[in-house]
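[SOLVED] Need 3D model of a three-part complex

Original post:
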Amino acid sequence: MLTVLLAIGMLVLLSLVFGAILGYANVRFHVEGDPIVDQIDALLPQTQCGQCGHPGCRPYAEAIANGEAINHCPPGGQSTIQALADLLDVEAVPLDGDHGTETAKRVAVIREDECIGCTKCIQACPVDAILGAAKQMHTVIADECTGCDLCVEPCPVDCIDMVEVGVTAKTWSWDKPQGIAATSLNIIATDRQAEVVH
Amino acid sequence: MQMVILATIPGIVVQTWLFGWGTLINLMIACITALLSEAAILAIRRRAVGFFLKDYSALLTAVLLGVALPPVVPWWVTVTAVAFAIIFAKQLYGGLGNNPFNPAMVGYAIVLVSFPVPMSQWLGVQSMISAGETLSFLQSLQAIFHHLPVIDSYTMATPLDGFKHKDLLDTQTAFSSIAALQVPSLNGWLWVNLAYLVGGLALIWLRIITWHTPAALLGALLVMSGVFHLIDPTDTATPFFHLTTGAAMFGAFFIATDPVSSCTSNRGKLIYGAGIGILIYIIRSWGGYPDGVAFGVLLMNFAAPLIDYYTQPRTYGHKKAKSGLKVGEDN
Amino acid sequence: MQTASIFSFHGGIHPAENKAQSLQLPLGRPSLPSELILPLGQHIGQSSRPLVKVGDSVLKGDAIAINNGFLSSFLHAPTSGTVSAIEERLIAHPSGLSDLCIILTPDGKDTWTTLEPLNNWQDISKTDVLAYLSEMGIIGMGGAGFPTQVKLQGAHKNPLTHFIINAAECEPYITADDMLIREKTLELVLGIEILQHLVEAENVVIGIEDNKPTAIAALKTVLTQRNSNIQVAVVPTKYPSGGEKQLIQLLTGKEVPSGQYPADIGILCQNVGTCVAVHDAIKLGRPLISRFTTLTGDALNASQNVEVLLGTPISHLLDYADANPNALHRLIMGGPMMGYTIDSPLVPIVKTSNCILAASKKELPTPAPEQACIRCGMCEQACPASLLPQQLLWFSKSQEFEKAEHHNLFDCIECGACSYVCPSSIPLVQYYRHTKSSIREAREANVKSDLAKQRFEARKARQDAEAAEKEAKRLARQKAAPSKTTDAKKATPAKAAPAVAEPASDDSKKLKVDIAIGKSKLKKLQKQLLEAQEKEHVEDINSLQLQVSDQEKTVASLEAQLANVAQAAPAAEATPAPANDELKKAKIDVALIGVKLKKLQKQLDESPDDQELKDKVAGFEADLKAAQAILATLGASAPVASAPKAAANDDLKKLKIDAAIAKAAVKKVEKALKKAEEINAPEIDAIRQQLQDAQQRADELEKALANPEAATQTAETTTAKAESVADSANADAAKKRKIDLAIAKAGIKKAEKNIQLLKDQGKDESEINASEWPKKLIEAQEKLATLESEQPTPATAKTETKAVPAEAQAAADMDLATQIKKEKIAVALAKAQINKLNKRLENSPEDTNSIRQEIDAAEKRLQSAEALLEKLIHSQTNMQENR
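Solution:
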């Protein structure tokens, strides 16, 4: 009987001691991390397109922090979903098709001779990337355009096109090789007949 | 891989000469099992079966296991070992290149732990050399597929086994009294090890493997056995004994050098090899098994990624090498 | 001449050299091709800007493109001829993409332009020499194409210990530099001496691999002859000893720190080709228009080195080297290690093209399929940068960019040694290139998304501030309204005040919601229609089409209503039209005449007897008066004149918008027609009809737009919107009203002025009250109030939605105005009383106390009246602003 009591007593004592140590460590070594919303927001593409159903990227980041699905962001696509999954330690799911599909990077271009200067697109642009004044022709600052599509709908004369950003020799980059069991013509150094026999 | 397989030929020849057809039959069983299980798993994983079979990796695993198992071990032991090695130790980890452990040694360890009796049935070398008696091909087949009791008269402990069970005898007495530690037996195993040494040196010469791992392994084994033999010559065997019996050379040149599960940088290979050498000596001397290559290699497989992290070479243009797991702290 | 000590570098490989083939024949000089293709981006940095236009004729050596910024270069005509085009052509690039090129058609004469060598290069400033080199279009000819003057400028940062001439040419097959050294040994040495003059390094070393004995011997001979202190360092043949960083390590034992340039550790590297080009430019005045290129490979029967004009198409060179088209398997620009496959032989030679490798199938077989990495570590042994290629491959495959960077991916020089030794045939370098560019893209995307975030947040802050301001105003208004009800005696009209803005906004809100609902219905219907069209359900299509058009009509009418509501408020406000040009002119005239007059009067003051001056002054005074009169009439007519103008403008704008909408509709219908045609739907005819209708409407609108006079009419008939009539009617009424208002306001002002005048004259308050002015003031104010209340009444004729808020507003306006008037009078009365009392206080000091009390009471009354007045005025302005 005494042994049992002793054992229980020891365990209680131990738990108290370790609890105290843990509690102290928690206070002493508390890490002031980025709030999770900021971290999520940093991963989102900041197109502010609202395709996720939120008015901007930050509100969606807040919604994700509160448990919304991470696959509602078509501009970010699968890579953003993967990054969010890594950050939040959840499973990476495919993009939710209800919110749109992942497209190549695009910018808005105004067909300027058709523009009537209604300023509707200027009001719609979430990043102030459209320049113009009432009754003056408008134009898009291509570098600032996030390709969010929000200006297309309000245009009364349908003069805004979403144009895919083409690849030039300067912006071109190498493709990823297709992986195991695939032949890549671009392999370098194939003239190794001199050392074929190992 | 083909070259590694070819480099085992001297060892296989010597083993066949010493232990009879059993070794070759084992090899056949192992190879067939390996190819079948590899093909089956690839088919299940929907991979290009033909393409991956041609990389010889399954065959190499089979060959290594075939020569490592005792010559007259029952067929189901070989099949179990090989199938386990291919299916569990390799394919379930993602196939070639993704397995953290040496598949052959995983298979070997599994059967060693599961079936200790057949795994200790090595044939005696002595009787074959002195009496010219050896198992015929048919006898070997029978021994492997219908465990013949007659075999027991041929089986005999390996030198390492013998030395392990010397119990309270001192070294000198053991070498004079225990059959497995007599000169013919020792010479037989010396031949086996020499054959693998030749194959291994060929691999180094052909630049299939680097010298780092074998040298470190054998060096560590030499140093360990040497130091302990100097301390207590009456209870320990000589370094020469350790280097020329069991799977010392085979392990050093063919098992520990498996690139997938070992370290990659040169410094890492040295540490990795030395670790195996030390573990082999520890297991042989104080462990429960007579030989320690399989467990030594597997234990160091665990440590390989860690060693890799801490032995990154210094990149050109950088003051010092990066090490450790810290990501994001540049320079 | 001395020999330098040699160090070594990690890794490296020994591929088959294959250099002998192209050294069998002497240096060749191909004939002029039929056209030269000169890409504008032959160097690292900004593409050059063309200096010529299509049709220009140029002489050999004329500059045809100028540098575009700091990191850029010039481009020169390689021969005389005509610029036949400036267009996109395929260029030698791994992507196989096109870029802008100047196309030159040679005239065959090959006439040089006037050459002006820089003979005094030792005397003029180094900056000038560098600028001259830039104008000669000289860039690094080793591979990257870094503009030479930029590199030389960078070398001035630190004192140089080593100036290294890269003659290693470590890549298999290529012998262009070897041949260049043999052919132009003296030019090379002279070029090095010029560069040494420019950079002043302690040691000048030529690094050359030991597989070029002829070139080494030639160099040594010339250097001994010239008793030069340039050293020749013969390095063992090992790929990639010609890499800049590797050669530096070989010759100096130093490593270029990661992320820095050789200049940072006092070392400069130049390719032999660049040195010869520098010599040609300075000593001969020749710009960079040709280069040595190796033509080699089993598919060529006459492998050799050629001195070739830039822009020569590779097909021309293949013909020259007697290519066997059947044997040609792959065409590679550059060497087998770092070169890239080009898809078309039409691409031109550029300043950095050192080799054309026309390989047969046997020579460069299609690589074996990629196998799994078994971490054999061969790549690690071969890597000259001491990287862990197998780890980098792992991270590249799994897209773990952070880890790849941590493993120093960006220190990879893409030499291909790892790919070469890989037993699993893994295209390692391609993985690294892909990962590098992915990381760069990710960085750029990060920068961009940060920017977008900033802009978005700035915009949000701005909008929030605007909203907050509006909210504050609204609150102030709400506060003002109830305070009035408590104070004012007539509560009934005051109640309407807070309701003024609300009905309008409520209405518009409701309408907006309706529109949104309508639109969503429309969308749904359109979707159904589309589906039906896809499934070819004829009946469904017809009914759906009807529904869609109905819904469209509803939405349109709702939108029109919304527009009316939105317009109602501003319409009620008579904003004064801006002064027109004439008015301005008149004002300027008046001012001018006034200034002149003043001057003359001054003169007159100084010499008062001058009759001439007096006459002039009199004349100017008359002018001034006339001008003022004009100004006055103009001022009166200006608002009147501008009002119809504005109305016309509005009409025009509306027309334009209508036209644009009609055009868009035409387009939409056209699209639908196309689709219908595609699926061969039965409603094609209907759609065609629609298209015609829409087209017609658009045409009519277009016509109307062209003829502004008919604008109103056409707009009426075509758009079937009755607004325009009302608008024009309203415009007239508004005009009249505005004039009345102006008159009334002027009356008030006049009365106030007169009252003030009387006050200034020291008249007693009672006297002022006795005069006619206060009465007039009140009269005028009343008139103004009635006018202002009348003002929106015409709007009631328009639509009912408008009338409600307008009336309410009018009531509120009247109420406010009368209240203000009353309070003003109260204030005036209180002030007068105080004045009176004060006077009494002065006159009769005996009953000070009682008078004082009276004064206090009056002052209190005054204060409360003033406070109330202020509030009322404030709320009035608010209301006006919010309309």
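Edit: Confidence is low (pLDDT under 50) at residues 326-331 of chain B.
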